[in-house]
Amino acid sequence: MEIKQPAVAGTLESSDCMVTVEPGQGEIELDLDSVVIRQYGRQIRKVIHETLDRLDVKNARVTVVDKGALDCTIKARVECAVYRSNGIKDNLPWGGVIK
Amino acid sequence: MSDFYISQVDPNDARTMARVDGLLTREGIRRDGNLDYTCAMFDENGQAVATGSCFGNTLRCFAVSGAHQGEGLLNQIVTHLIDYQAARGQFHLFLYTKAEAARFFTDLGFHEIARVSGKLVFMENRRGGFSGYLKRLEKTKKSGVSAAVVMNANPFTFGHQYLAEQAAASCDALHLFVVSEDLSFFPFAVRKRLVELGTAHLSNVILHDCGPYIISSATFPSYFLKDETAVIEGQARLDVEVFKQIAGILNISSRWAGEEGASRVTSLYNRVMAEELPKAGIRFVEIPRAGACGAVISASSVRACLRSGDFETLEKLVPAGTLHYLMSPEAEPVLRKLRSAKDVAHY
């Protein structure tokens, strides 16, 4: 999927994360802030990249402010931000891929 | 997670606003005069326990009741404001906060741009924002003596031209920054073009955009909108801190400005620069303004002429490029706006 317009999903509350996606400059540019970056930074990055991969997002600036979210939360927030950027509001294909 | 609810506070709802003001006062914060959105969190008794506001692309006036600190209420307020800003298309956000509160915002994805020591910290939610701006500037760095001028040029006059000429003659490279914020009568694209035309004869001038960093509605909202002296001064100090970093990157050794008599904001700004810049080893040069018709030239007087349709005087105040634009159909919408404005002078 293409990142058509900037979009935000998630919150800054404990155990959640806030994901912002914006049109990129030809690649995935990930800026991660996390309260547990030392413990789980690598895993969080992996989840984000996998989710973007599955959604076929190749070109985006992604900002994630993580407050200790579980992998499933991170995944859901990333998906939601990408869907919002595409203006998809109904019949969200959670866990799927939109062509 | 608390059971408190967040809602928008209508500025006309005096009763609720008084509660928000009460909370701000108790936490030692003054509500800014210029806000375009305020939200607050209320407890079960309807008392405000946390609040935050927006103006343009900034977040401001945060407070959490002393009785509820450490409960993550600020996180909820910031989330609410970010969502609100996203809904109106603002993603690159700025805020300033008291120095002791900065670490809370660092945890919420904000990065420091500059600070007025012991007073306030200016932050943005983009890690490479200001550093990216500095990197782009660095490419234009020149060897030898460099100087800087920052102008709004609303619109570009003989006064601006005189200032640029004087500054350019003093150095090997003059970095000229044009205020990018579109809050003035003349749109940025026009102001910049007229500066370009009016300085074309100066071969050592390098034009830059101020972006959101110098004299913007993020750093210096009171430049554009009326506010109190203490507020203007605080923001001017912050602006100067940002400029010091830019000066460091470009090796700028002097900043030039015209003497200011009429505008309160600009004269305060000049005074702060005169105080602060030498501390960073930057000379602040204030030159007497160029005159015409027995008075100094200023953009405010040009706007006054335009409003009254006095094109005869105008010819003596602005260079050919600006005059040509002002006579063209392109300028019509701006002139219409000027004619219907109550006040065209910079306060």
List the keywords.
heterodimer; A: 99 residues; alpha+beta; 33% helix; 25% strand; B: 347 residues; alpha/beta; Aminopeptidase; Rossmann fold; 2 domains; 5-stranded parallel β-sheet; 12 helices; 14 strands; globular
The radius of gyration computed from the alpha-carbon positions of chain A, rounded to a whole number of angstroms, is 12 Å
Name the CATH superfamily assignment of the largest domain in chain B: HUPs
Q: Give the terminus-to-terminus CA distance of chain B.
A: 46 Å
From the alpha carbons, calculate the radius of gyration of chain B and give it in angstroms: 22 Å
What name does the CATH topology of chain A carry?
Ribosomal Protein S5, domain 2
Poorly predicted segments of chain B: none
From the coordinates shown, what is the CATH architecture of chain A? 2-Layer Sandwich
Unreliable runs of chain A, pLDDT <50, ≥5 residues?
Answer: none
DSSP helical segment count of chain A: 2
